[in-house]
Amino acid sequence: MGASPLVGALSARGILELYEHQARALSTARPHLMVATPTSSGKSLVYTAPVIDAVLRDGHARALLLFPTKALAQDQLGSLTKLAERACPMLYAATLDADTTRPDRRQIAARCHVILTNPDLVHATLLPHHADWAELLRNLKLVVRGSP
Question: Which CATH number does 4-145 carry?
Answer without folding.
Answer: 3.40.50.300
